[in-house]
Amino acid sequence: MISFERFELKNGLKVLIHEDDSTPMVAVNVLYNVGARDESPEKTGFAHLFEHLMFGGSANVADFDTPIQMAGGENNAFTNNDITNFYDIVPAENLETALWLESDRMLSLNFDERVLEVQRKVVLEEFNETCLNEPYGDVWHHITDMAYKVHPYRWPTLGKVPKHVEEATIEDVKTFFYKYYRPNNAILAIAGNVQSKEVITLIEKWFSDIPSGKANVRILPQEPPQMRLEKRINEANVPVDALYLAFHVPARNQQDYYVADLISDILSHGPSSRLYQRLVKQKAIFSSIDCYVTGSIDPGLLIVEGKPSEGVSLEKGVAAIWKELEFLKQELISERELQKVKNKIESNLIFSEMNIINKAMNLAFYELLEDAELINKEASFYQKISREDINRVANELLTEVNCSELLYKAKT
Prior knowledge:
The protein has 15 helices and 11 strands. It is globular. By secondary structure, it is an alpha+beta fold. The protein folds into 2 domains: 5-207, 2-Layer Sandwich (Cytochrome Bc1 Complex, Chain A, domain 1); 230-410, Cytochrome Bc1 Complex, Chain A, domain 1 (2-Layer Sandwich), CATH 3.30.830.10. The strands form 2 sheets. A 6-stranded mixed sheet has the order 1-2-6-3-5-4, sandwiched between helices. The chain has a 5-stranded mixed sheet with strand order 7-11-8-10-9, with helices on both faces. α1 (46-53) packs across α4 (113-132), α3 packs parallel to α8 (196-207) and α9 (255-267) crosses α15 (387-397).
């Protein structure tokens, strides 16, 4: 059990604190409830751009890395469809340094044309390197465009096109900041060698005077059920052919999300999983294969991806995967196989929560899902899943009409 205290400042900042005296360190995690799904279709990539801008200095801090490093710590951030997350890990005695830095950029970020231009170049270079110039780098542009027609998950976190970031103005940046980077749209989670009473005093000192913003009411278009197979062939400069099958799955707070997650592990989680055993090891149809769920807050995707072995066509690879999916749909999984996968998931959950930064991140994320206690509940959700649940959800989700099929054909 991971114990924690929860309280909320008058400006709306939600705070969670976990005491852990097994480490000399403390993790400070600030989650902002904004991601790529909050962007306008004409201004995509802004959440990711803003992640970078938050390191561009503030009223009292020219750069954020140096003070953290001088305090013996490290910091970083990430953005996805749903959230933007910043974290610092420092020796416990230097907790106040991290709180000062996070509060200063929340209160008074540096809106500067030079900073915008520097970070714009960094983001555009990342777009070029990871999307345009990397083999299979544009895979999410294709998959999301095929799978989503109205929901903003239809573009990746990097954005639709570089042009949107290229044309971002200081006024765009200010508007985005004051809408989303307010204390009432943030969750602060702290885990490590601390005392809650002392931490609360420090948080009130550094964050209580930051003005709250207007409440953001998120109204997003609901993606309608997919009614037909989506297929796309992309001839590209890639080393070998590759295929991707994407199936819609329930939202992160739905019980069947956990069933879909278990299904992905049954299919591909380690060398004893079905797809690896049968299609890589026994039949040598694939040189590599994987299956996973995106884990997004709104209804997401289960992805099967693989690279056929030399001499094996993409069509044969697709057919082999569908054959395995039909086996899963037609026959009840054995209790032994199901329990083995459950135990792996539970051990992974327990192992991940031995790390203070993962504890802080998870507490913040689960609080966003409106139940921080999920950090102690999720393992039991998986254990309650039955063989019949696996069969039911597999038959509901792993269908042709619920699938988007992307094939990469290597140019010869």
